[in-house]
Design a protein that fits this description.
CATH superfamily of the domain at 98-276: Ribonuclease Inhibitor
Order of helices and strands: HEEEEEEEEEEEEEEHEEHEEH
Largest sheet: 15 strands, mixed
Helix content: 10-25%
Strand content: 35-45%
CATH topology of the domain at 98-276: Leucine-rich repeat, LRR (right-handed beta-alpha superhelix)
Bound molecules: 2-acetamido-2-deoxy-beta-D-glucopyranose
Structural class: alpha/beta
Number of helices: 4
Distance between the termini: 10 Å
Shape: elongated
Length: 332
């Protein structure tokens, strides 16, 4: 009887082999992993997994390059989850990934290079995301992505250059992106984007950063539809660029409540641009010569990752069980 119990114990422990599936996760035959109710990045994920879903999880910290060892990874989804912080280079260098999805996610802060060095991904979709603070270069160095969508995205506080260094993208869509406080240069260093659409967004700042995108001839098509824009001295450029750009559509945008009171809520194209200046306003849209070097991901300190610990504990348990089992056999 005792022996049987020990054999069962061995069988149970053995089936939780670290190559199989971590606690709170389900791993399927087709290499999909679904984890639910986690409070940290799991250890012991299968090296060959293709898809991973984190559902109803709450992460205190998200380490640098957590996904690097999973070379076959095609999709990553975070749904119904919370993060205190997306640390530098947390979601970065995933060149084989085809889809990254965040849906119904709350994040206290996305730090510099939180999402960075992402290239060749077909789709990055962030829907129903609430972020309290977006640091400089939060979305940095994103290239060759077919579709980048941020929809129903709310940001409390946004620094300058949050969107930085984007190149060769087919479609960038910001839809219902709402910011409460922001600096005026959210966008910096954009090149070769086929289509850039900003619809139903609220920006309480003159959006000087858009100037670079609009003036850049390699950004082919730009759509600004139904946005609330801060109409001030610093927004005059929109008209100038609007006249010269080849495919620039400025439709149904209204002046936001941050605008001089006589302009607020009026259709942007209907107002007389001479009315734009608040008397006490100091223009802040320079010509965009900001020379700030962005550090590479390698320059950020590595997170201490104890992926090995779990395995050690596991081996230790197995040993004890084996010893006990042998002892019991000898006794019996
Ligand atoms: C995430 O945060 C929200 C708001 O604080 C809370 O209602 C929700 O339960 C949290 N979700 C998880 C998975 O912790
Ligand atoms: C992408 O896949 C290739 C081939 O499977 C592999 O050699 C490479 O290391 C992978 N890259 C990353 C960043 O995982
Ligand atoms: C602009 O707004 C008007 C009135 O609300 C509407 O009829 C029209 O379809 C809108 N145009 C676009 C392109 O959204
Ligand atoms: C971080 O880890 C990588 C490899 O995992 C290593 O090449 C690099 O030197 C490390 N960087 C630091 C600052 O320790």
């Amino acid at each position: 009887m005792k022996l049987l119990l020990f054999l069962i114990t061995i069988a149970t422990v053995g089936s939780q082999n670290p190559d199989e599936c971590p606690f709170m996760c389900t791993c399927t035959q087709d290499k999909k992993v679904i984890c639910k109710g986690l409070d940290r990045f799991p250890v012991g994920l299968p090296d060959d997994m293709k898809d991973i879903v984190f559902d109803v999880s709450s992460f205190n910290n998200f380490g640098k390059n957590s996904f690097q060892t999973f070379k076959n990874l095609k999709t990553i989804s975070f749904i119904n989850s919370n993060f205190t912080s997306i640390n530098p280079c947390s979601i970065s260098d995933l060149s084989n990934l085809t889809k990254l999805e965040l849906s119904n996610v709350r994040i206290d802060q996305i730090e510099t290079h939180g999402f960075s060095h992402l290239s060749q991904i077909k789709e990055i979709v962030m829907r129903k995301v609430l972020v309290q603070r977006l640091h400089k270069y939060a979305f940095n160095n994103i290239k060759h992505v077919d579709k980048f969508v941020m929809e129903i995205f709310t940001a409390g506080n946004m620094e300058n250059f949050v969107f930085h260094d984007w190149l060769n993208m087919r479609l960038v869509q910001l839809n219902k992106f709402q910011v409460l406080y922001m600096k005026s240069i959210p966008f910096k260093n954009f090149d070769a984007i086929d289509q850039f659409e900003i619809t139903e967004c609220t920006f309480p700042s003159p959006m000087c950063g858009l100037k670079d995108i609009l003036r850049n001839p390699s950004v082919k098509k730009i759509k600004l539809h139904e946005n609330a824009i801060d109409c001030s001295c610093n927004t005059k450029w929109i008209f100038e660029v609007g006249r010269s750009a080849k495919d620039f559509r400025l439709v149904n945008n209204t002046c936001s409540l941050n605008s001089p009171s006589q302009l607020a809520t009026r259709e942007v194209l209907s107002i007389n641009k001479n009315l734009f200046c608040k008397t006490d306003e100091v223009p802040t849209c320079g010509d965009g010569t900001y020379k700030t070097r962005t550090p590479s991901c390698q320059e950020f300190p590595n997170e201490s990752h104890n992926a090995g610990t779990h395995r050690h504990v596991h081996m230790y348990t197995l040993c004890i069980v084996a010893v006990l089992s042998v002892a019991s056999k000898l006794k019996g």
